[in-house]
């Protein structure tokens, strides 16, 4: 490593980095995606009420067009004030010109007041500029809402990795705390002034992730290191760490692969949750909405089931079992008790056909999946989603993570009440390694291909499945 690189490294990591880079998992990226379209629409409505005294149908139609042309909004938080002015001005000229041209071509422009249009022409960019400046003021508070910064490691202490670390340091809006570097050369082969920055070698990377609670890995390795990169990815499959490439590289078996920009530098995600940024907002909002509605509708049913359980056998109505949730963190999942025992220890026997532990009421509940209904409370708590990989008992997790490659990757998302695997034949007992492998394969397929439409499809198929499936007992 050159002296220049060592000096850059020392300057970069001498103090803790708690500056975040804007990326898809940053709440600011969600706000930015909505800022421009809503600022333009808000200014249009204000002008309409001021000039015409009402918000008529043509202006509502124009609002829809404005949203379609502007969503998602541009990322401008990292821009200088001069760049911000130029970007907003040029962008608005293009939008306003296109709308005027469309209005003339269709003749629909006659539906609008010229006074309102020309007032909006100067009010819109001014409103967007004010909104952008306001966002810069509240950005630190928005970042705090997301909790503490995410700890990260850069693999590869080369010029590229050092430049990336420097960009993270200079970022004003950060959720990354850079713990240090990992380098294949080892501490003994680096210059003395840089050894404090290297936490270890590639062989100990998985251990570092666990011991230092690392949440992100940025791979800054040359393309010639492909075999080594694949070994790293393989070693990290027993963790829930998010992995990114810096810069453009190619690997197979990607989970939500996408390019992203971190402090102005392009990185590539190779193992990431689909629920970041706007997608995360959509997923959580839909979970809260549907779980609330469903719980309101089934309250009488929940009461009836609780009475039946208490009438049929002694013991608690709700069975609380430990499961692994998002990022492999332990959570408590609720179910209606369906057995005479409430096992939650280190060894758990899966339910089998004609299992003597299952009560009469429990047999019906398990057959119809009604025992899962309390998990809608888990959804409202934020521990689970309506759709996602089914949570397994802690004891089962510890067993299968050692036997199935990529098993822990399914914990990049919250566990679900139902899932892609369940509607594809993997509902009920998984008494063989092959069955569990099949379930995990479908779970990972869900992570790769998630969409809101897929969630709706899974919910609809689940309803049909519980009425006719013979695999649950």
TrEMBL record:
Spans traversing the lipid bilayer: 27-47, 53-72, 84-105, 117-143, 288-309
Keywords, sorted A to Z: Membrane, Transferase, Transmembrane, Transmembrane helix
Chief location category: membrane
Gene3D superfamilies (UniProt xref): NAD(P)-binding Rossmann-like Domain
GO CC, one annotated term: membrane
Location within or outside the cell: Membrane
Entry protein name: UDP-phosphate glucose phosphotransferase
Natural source organism: Hylemonella gracilis str. Niagara R
